[in-house]
Amino acid sequence: MSTEKQSLRRKLDRLFVPLTVGPTMLWIAGIIVYPTLKLLWSSVFWTNPIDGQKEFVGLRNFERLIFAEGGSGTVFGLAPDFVSITWHTFVYVGLSVSISFALGLGIALLLDKDLKGRGWFRTAVIVPWILPYVMSGLMWRWMFNSEYGAINGILTQSGLLSSKIAFFSDGTLAMMALVIADIWVFTPFIIIILLAGLQNVPEQLYDAAEVDGAGKVSRFVNVTYPFLKPSILVALTIRIIFDIRALDLVWVMTQGGPGKSTEVWASWLYRTAQVFNRPGEGAALGVVLLAVTFLIVAVLYRVFGESPY
Amino acid sequence: MSTKQSTLGQLIAALGLDTENEWSHVVRERLVAYALLGLYVFVIWFPIYFIFITSIKPTSAVLDIPISFLPTQPTVSNYVEIFQNRPFELYTLNSLIVASTTTVICVTLGTVTGYSFSRYDFVGNKTLLLSIVGARMIPPIALIVPFFSIMSNPPLIGGLTGSLYDTRIALILTYTFFNLPFAVWIMKNYFDGVPESLDEQARIDGCSRWEGFVKIILPMAKPGIAATAILAFIFSWNEFVFALVLTSSEQAQTLPIAVSLFVADDFVDWAHLAAGGMIAALPGILFGLFFQQYIVSGLTQGAVKE
């Protein structure tokens, strides 16, 4: 009886790893690997919108999206939509990430100081990131509302401006509104990651630098930065790849408008697949997005000379 | 001569001029830090304040010009009306069910798997871990096409369930896709910080691997589990894109969708949208205020490798 029980225990012990890792791996295979393979598969088919028949088209979905078909109005042989939407994505991601990084670094350095009420400030600073993006996007759409928005209210009621600005009727201003909302939502993430990284800087090194008469800038470059580098890399990587895929803010604030002036890859993908019901081309865009994401991660880690795992 | 010098020194010291400089420098630096942080907090909280006062203004007063920045005649009518005129109790229920089920699945699987990854050097350990890191980078939106078709016509289980489109199950399955790899990763990193000598002690005391894990290690991992659970809950509660793709009625639509439904082409019902938005934002605000340290530690564990 007791030996039987013991041998069962031993058998269960030997099965510990398969039983704890197996289910998760099966789950991941079903919910991540299979859909990813299906994405690649879907990207080489064209679905007839009328009868739903699928037809194998090879790489034609990619060609149609990236290279113009007719050849007229192309930009170096590329489809004008592809070029302009890629540019918008670049502007959106570039501005949002760089500004929020600079801001986040500044706030993280301030919060790293030995201030009273630091915990309170940290809580207050993190909250925007935890709110539903939809709510944040609509909140900023309300802030920038051309008639009743708080920003126009402040500008006109204080007498700074005589007439209100229709932010969402102008491509550049609409992009600016999106970038501001994005910075508002994601700067807390940078702050959290960098603040954690700052804890790794040994206090004595600051003291030593001070004794050596190092100025603030030199102290940051020579002492803080080397220790902060891994955190900077993580913060930038995650910020960039999350911004490229982000649909929420764009969709609830501008839907890519006015015209197509704020259309980015994510909204283009959604529009193609769901609104225009062209799953083949939507999947092709998904493949492009996937490839670009992995490319960016590879380049960033190469530039910073770190291993990504 | 020397007396004179020391008198001068004493005078300076008495007036606090020598130390004063040092001291005022520190004080000035702190004051600047407080001023900058205060300004930042004021600016980022202003929009939240503005949407909050919008939600408690009478519906018609929202469109008053000039805009009032103070809550004149505060009322809860917008909150009451969204529950009366729209199925907000169903949206809230859907959000609760979807977010908590996803959390339970991800925390359970993430904890046991993260532990094995941390402790055991089994065949394929590195490859599987790398695949989890890779899975975290996949942009969810890239997969809306396959997820839409898989949920409309599920393979293997399709005969049992039929189409999962517009069900909470579809959302739960989908949300495990971004939260499960994250949960495994956080928990693995967390267990890496729990000393292995505890495992060894448990074995010496005659515990099986299972007993040692459940009785000794799991209680040590509570903060890590809390961090994983809070983040998984928030991510699932806030998710919008897949809810938009995979649901179409109040039997599965969650709060973020419900809030977006106040936007109808050119007309936006701002007063009620603000009230709905505040309800959708409530768990986030509460978690942020009361469990901030778990959010920070979870994110840090999840993002930084060690």
**CATH homology group of the largest domain in chain B:** MetI-like
Query: Which sequence of SSEs, written as H and E, runs from N to C of chain B?
Result: HHHHHHHHHHHHHEEHH
* Extended strand count of chain A: 2
CATH architectural name of the largest domain in chain A: Orthogonal Bundle
Separation, N- and C-terminal Cα atoms of chain B: 63 Å
How much β-strand is present in the residues of chain A? under 5%
The gyration radius over C-alpha positions of chain A equals 25 Å
Oligomer class: heterodimer
Mean pLDDT of chain B: 86
Largest interface comes to: A-B, 90 and 98 residues
What class do helices, strands and sheet pairing of chain B give? Answer: mainly alpha
Query: Count of helical segments of chain B?
Result: 15
Q: Average pLDDT of chain A, to the nearest integer?
A: 87
Could you name the ranges of chain A where pLDDT drops below 50 across 5 or more consecutive residues?
none
Number of helices of chain A: 13
CATH class of the largest domain in chain A: Mainly Alpha
- What is the helix fraction of residues of chain A, given as a range? over 70%
Organism (chain A): Haloarcula rubra
Transmembrane segments (chain A): 15-37, 90-111, 123-143, 173-196, 283-304
Main location (chain A): membrane
Domain ABC transmembrane type-1 (chain A): 86-300
